[in-house]
Each structure stands twice: as C-alpha cells, then as structure tokens.
Amino acid sequence: MVVKIQVPRGTQDILPGQVEKWHYVEGVMRRLAAEYGFQEIRTPVFEHTELFQRGVGETTDIVEKEMYTFEDKKGRSLTLRPEGTAGAVRAFIEHSYFAQPQPTKFYYIGPIFRYEAPQAGRYRQHHQFGIEVFGSAEPITDAEVILVAVDLFSRLGLADLTVKLNNIGCPKCRKDYREALIAYFRPQVEALCADCRNRLERNPLRILDCKQESCREVVAGAPEITSHLCAECQEHFSGVQRYLEAAGVKYEVDSGIVRGLDYYTRTVFEIIYTGLGAQSTVCGGGRYDNLIETVGGPPTPGVGFGMGIERLLLTLEKTGCYLPEKAGPDLYIATLGQAAKEAAFAALLDLRRAGLRAVTDLMGRSLKAQLKYANKINARYVAILGENELAQGRVQVKRMADGQDAEVAWPDLLAWLKAQMQADSRKEEEVQDDSR
RNA sequence: GUGGGUGUAGCUCAGUUGGUUAGAGCGCCAGGUUGUGGCCCUGGAGGUCGUGGGUUCGACUCCCAUCACUCACCCCA
User: Fold this and answer.
1) Among residues A53, A61, A29, which one has the least CA distance to residue A130?
2) CB of residue A283 closer than 7 A to nucleic acid strand B?
C-alpha cells in the first residue's frame, strides 16, 4: 500500500448488505413502471455538452457550475449527465420516436453527476429513477406522472410524504408574471439578500423559494403566479388537480415550488420528506412543453420526474420501512477429508443448477471452523460430509436456526432440502399471518 | 465557492496537566485433544496516531498549513 486511494469526493461504493436494498427498490420501480406502460431506456452517461446547455438552460446552476465537463481526445466537449431528461429527449428525437404512436413513455434508472459540495443526502454521483411521457399535453398525463411517484412510495410503505404542486405557466403568462414580479420586488431591493438582488433581473422566479428570512418576508406579499396564468394554463392546472383528486392523491398547492431547470412549463411538483437533513426533495418533476423543440425535435409536449434513489433509501430507512437484509446461502457443505471434499465439490454443481445458493469450504478449515464460518455467514443449512457418511452414502444435515439434525441419503439431499425450505417458508408465512 | 465540526487498529471509540514498549470493545485468524456453529476461555495478526512543517530535552497531546470526511449555506434528487 503506497498511497491510499479513496472514492472520489461525493461518490460512494454500494457494498453487499446495501446493494440488496437497491435491487429491491429497483425491482419495485421496474414492475411499477411496466404496469403503467413505461418502457426502459438506457442512454449514455455522457452526452455532448451542448445538449445540456440547450436543454437544461444556460442560466441554471446546473449548467453554470455543476457539470462534469471534459474534452475527449478529439477535442469534443462532453459532459457527464447532470439530469436524466435531456438524454431521453435526445434519444426520442434521434430515433424518430415522434413518428411512432404517441405517447412515448420511457423510464430510466441510472447515475447522475453534479459537481456540488456533498452533504447529507447529496452526492456528486447519485442515482435517479425517472420517467418521461412525450407527446401528450393533456392534464391527465401530468396527473399520471405524479401518480406513478405516489404509487411507488405507497408500495414501498411510505406514508408521510408531501406532494407539492404548482403551475408556473407557459412562456406567455410567465412573461407577464415575470414583469409583475420585477415590478413588485424592485422598490424593495434593499430588503433582499445579495443572491436575490442578482436574481431580480435574471430569474425573479427564484426569489420565491429563497430561504433567507428577510427575503421570505418580502416574498410573502409578492403576486402569486396563479393570478397571472393565462386561461389555458389555468384550465390545465385545474384539470391536473381534478385527476389527482379522482385518484385520491393528496397534494398541496405551493406557489414557492419553482424548480431549478429552465425547461419547465406549467406543472411543476416536488415530493418531499422532512427528515433527511437539509435535503428534503425525494422526487421532483414537471411539464416541459418546449424542451423537445429546443433540443431540435418537432414541437412535442412532455412531462416527467426524477427521483433520487439515495434519498429514497434514506427515507425508507428513517421511517423504518421494510428493506431486505443481506442473505446467507441456503446450504453450506462442510467436509472432512479429501474424498468428501471432492464429492461435495461435484455435488454442488447440481445443487446450484437447481437454484440453491450453495457453497463449501475454500479455506482448508477444520470441521469446527467450517461450522463457525457457516454460522457467521448466516447459512440456513449445513450439510456435513465426512468419511463415514461417504462410506454409507448418507449426509448429516443441520438446520442452523435451531440446530436440528437429520440424516439424509446423499443422492436425496437436493429433494430433501427443497422440501424443507418450502416447509420453512410456509411456517414463516403463518407467523406473519398471526401477527396481523 | 463559503462557514462550522471531526480525523488514533477493519469498525466504534479511550488516551490523564506534553513523558518512555499507544489501549479497550467488537471484528478477523488460530486453538480449548478423537468429526459439529451460536455462549465462554486462551493466543495471534493488525496502527508511519490523516499528511507536512514548527515549538520542545521529549508531541497522539500545543501551533501553523494541507488533505479527507462530515454538517450547513447556495442549489437540488
């Protein structure tokens, strides 16, 4: 060991014990997405930098200071994706999905990169589960997208999340509103923090979700977007709300929800859990009716969300929701003597092909040490194969949970174990039923 | 980018007003006689005390710098 190399700042290894939890939530996500008619798309983790500049917006924090941008050997500017929508949109256009029956419903699961100062619930590489619906401008689509997130949370056993909903208008009404905001804030510039003074001309909408006490007071009296929406946006907004109510989704209208990406139009929403430290947003998304055109496709509306998997897992852990533990093997074969070792080695082949998770000693340990090891790795059953057993064509099998022993004919081991394990899991179910 | 906190064995942490061979618990490895886990007992491996410099007869301990981790601001998933 010369110089200890650690993971890059803000990244982490997902180790055994943790990775099972990832598999579990990813499994729920994939099943759910399929049930809602979404198909998986896998796009590159890096794209041409220009895609994000055009898509996400030049003035956003993400593009201004958070992108991992580099040049490849031919001098092309590439960027590790700082969000998931742009790549999906690019693929939609590149493969002419717009010429297919609409809507197009994609989902993705993968890493996202942002150069930020890491802290609780925030990383430089994190993972998102995201969905996108292209082609539909109907309010029912916005509601369905939100419903996917809400349904996912409820399937994972999560109850105390809050859906915050807002409508930031289309370019037409947003222009009006922008002017109204500037007109409102300009006389009170002195009361705003330095950041917000900056935002005033560039992006006054952002002042609305400033956390500074002084700014919040000023914001309290600011005109609300809702009163500046055009008739179409208003209708759309109430439509979304009607569908959400029809599906029994609880939500709060919050005019402070603005979102940090420029491409949003009309519907924006966040799903938050207060309990993650400073980071409360687990899922955020909205409608982006001009994005596809901006990136070079035909005018096509879209809605989607991104959900942070790390934050989701943190939330599940904090709220005590079910998460799988590291599982040990079904069977450990402890052997005594070379002949037994060889017999076990060969037998494992069949056991594994039958779907059993089965292992044996690779360390040359004594029988006792093998048993200790089997116990430590949480093996469900241990089969003991020594010279005596080999000679008699039998094997001793021990259930580790209670130490119960059985003698089984060596060729019957697989069948016997399968039957036992089935009986075990039936018992577990009964226990669960009783506790209900 | 800015501020606060923390860096001692694989992990969680002790380490007295600076004093000699830096400790514990857990974990790991091996044993506790003939072939049987969890409990108990014994032994062992494992640390340039984050790194570099300074003060001092002497630094894990004090000072400076640096790096890393962490929390927060900003922003977001």
Assistant:
1) A29
2) yes
In this complex, the answer to whether residue A304 has its CB under 7 A from any atom of chain B, a nucleic strand, is: no
Question: Which 179-208 positions of A have CB less than 7 A from strand B?
Answer: 195, 206
Its pTM stands at 0.90
Query: Beta carbon of A118 within 7 Å of strand B?
Result: yes
Distance of CA A388 to the CA centre of its chain: 53
Judged on CB neighbours under 10 Å (0-12, 13-18, 19+), A200 is middle
Q: In this predicted model, what pLDDT tens digit does every residue of A336-371 receive, in sequence order?
A: 999 999 999 999 999 999 999 999 999 999 999 999
Closest nucleotide to the alpha carbon of A128, via C1':
B77
Tell me the ipTM for this assembly.
Answer: 0.88
* CA–CA dist A32, A357 (Å, integer): 28
- Residue A148: Cβ within 10 Å count: 26
At A151, the amino acid letter reads D
Q: Is the CB of A336 under 7 A from strand B?
A: yes
Residue A127 has pLDDT above 70, yes or no: yes
Residue A225 near residue A168 (C-beta atoms within 8 A): yes
> Using CB atoms within 10 A of its CB, is residue A319 exposed (0-12), middle (13-18) or buried (19+)?
middle
pLDDT-derived band of residue A436, with 50, 70 and 90 as boundaries?
very low
Cis peptide before A103 (omega within 30 of 0): yes
CB A200 within 8 A of CB A193: no
Please tell me whether residue A247 adopts helix, strand or coil conformation. Answer: coil
Chain A 29..88 CB hits on strand B (< 7 A):
60-62, 83
* DSSP bridge partners of A166: A268
CA dihedral sign, ordered A314, A318, A321, A324: positive
Residue percentage of chain A with pLDDT more than 90: 68
Token couple for A334: 């402890």
Pairing of strands A39-40, A125-134: unpaired
Say if CB A160 and CB A258 are below 8 A apart.
Answer: no
Q: Which helix (H) or strand (E) holds A232?
A: helix A231-246
Residue A367: CB less than 7 A from any atom in strand B: yes
Predicted confidence (pLDDT) per residue in A318-338, tens digit? 888 999 988 899 999 999 999
By C1' distance from the Cα of A114, the closest nucleotide is: B76
| Single-letter amino acid, residue A280 | S
